[in-house]
């Protein structure tokens, strides 16, 4: 499966994406918002294999798509949508740090959300992140999601407590 934007291609994960995904999750700037075990090579390898397996399921309810430059098939990151109930999907994303600040993740997620709305009748999107993850919150706001709830001290890792936040929208912007 492939979804195109002006600059990007979202496609199913392939095994050759594994080194790129592991490199992204190995970056210190990426790791600061995740527990160490979720940044390990073993965990990342398991995730990429599950992304590949999910792309073969029918009906398909999980869309973990590789974000690539449309002209070069250069791996940029991951855009995700997971159908959780009728009309509702959780979303998430990750981008290699060298591609931050170029608008790629907003462009990719907008198109994935449009696809989910038109092909799967998703009308409500939500995302969970850490209150301190300002970059993710900025992206969610650009996607038209707004703060729905704050969960004080929801997570504990890296020897500190982290507040969780949920952002939601009824439709993509």
From TrEMBL:
PROSITE patterns the record matches: GNAT
Tree of life domain: Bacteria
Gene3D superfamilies: 3.40.630.30
UniProt cross-references to InterPro entries, sorted A to Z: Acyl_CoA_acyltransferase, GNAT_dom, N-acetyltransferase
Transmembrane segments: none
Domain N-acetyltransferase: 8-163
Name of the protein in its database record: GNAT family N-acetyltransferase
Originating organism: Vibrio ulleungensis
Lineage: Bacteria, Pseudomonadati, Pseudomonadota, Gammaproteobacteria, Vibrionales
